[in-house]
Write a structure and sequence with these properties.
By secondary structure, the chain is an alpha+beta fold. 29% of the residues lie in helices and 33% in strands. The chain is built from 7 helices and 9 strands. Helix 5 packs across helix 6. It starts with 16 loop residues before the first strand and ends with a strand.
């Protein structure tokens, strides 16, 4: 796996993305911070029922994994991977409030120049265009300053809301990955979505604006 040496600067990290205005408010995306602990814990605990069906199985209970004290070690890992150039761990904000996260992971260079993109937001903000705007900003950043050519996302077939977010941005379905990931203690099928830089006309954010789904502020 490619990693940046100390003589390199990670392209596109750190950076604040946006804003884009949607029905739910003014959306920006920024790097994670150590002081995010309380908000991260509150959101994750409060959204257990909304998030648990879609997230990889992990040791311990949901409550144990998302205590405020766990953020510090997690943040250290995220920051380390960001500095190595393999991960971009980002927070989604609406009107300045942390409402979710966007991650660009497994960044690969060389002839591939690809990564995966994942996201979650507070269920209280569903249906207001926030996740779509955040993903659009992440896509443009990945294909711009980060220098990638391809992004992938995997979604369970029953997660129609997440599929809608991806298709609005321009992701296309490439196939079904059978029993792909251990999620909520079962091996689950996932649909593979992908998008390459040369498939976008302009940018993902510009496309949302043209379609009336967002505005620049």
């Amino acid at each position: 796996m490619f990693s940046w040496s100390k003589s390199h600067v990670h392209p596109g990290w750190p950076a604040t993305l946006g804003p884009l205005r949607v029905a739910g408010g003014l959306v920006t995306v920024r790097p994670v911070r150590l002081r995010d602990a309380a908000r991260w814990s509150d959101l994750r605990l409060r959204n257990q029922n909304a998030l648990l069906p879609w997230e990889p199985t992990a040791p311990g209970s949901w409550a144990q994994r998302h205590q405020r004290s766990n953020w510090g070690p997690l943040f250290s890992v995220l920051r380390s991977e960001a500095k190595r150039g393999t991960l971009l761990p980002l927070v989604i904000e609406v009107d300045g409030e942390y409402v979710g996260q966007l991650t660009i992971g497994n960044v690969q260079r060389g002839a591939v120049r690809s990564a995966w993109i994942g996201y979650w937001i507070d269920s209280e903000h569903y249906g207001n265009g926030i996740a779509t705007a955040a993903v659009a900003l992440g896509v443009d950043h990945a294909f711009g300053p980060v220098g990638l050519h391809r992004l992938e996302a995997t979604v369970q077939p029953s997660n129609s809301a997440s599929q809608a977010v991806l298709t609005k941005i321009g992701f296309r379905r490439e196939g079904l990955l059978e029993r792909y990931m251990d999620v909520n203690s079962r091996w689950r099928d996932h649909i593979l979505f992908a998008l390459t830089a040369d498939e976008l006309m302009g940018s993902a954010a510009e496309s949302l604006v043209r379609l009336g789904r967002a505005n620049y502020s």
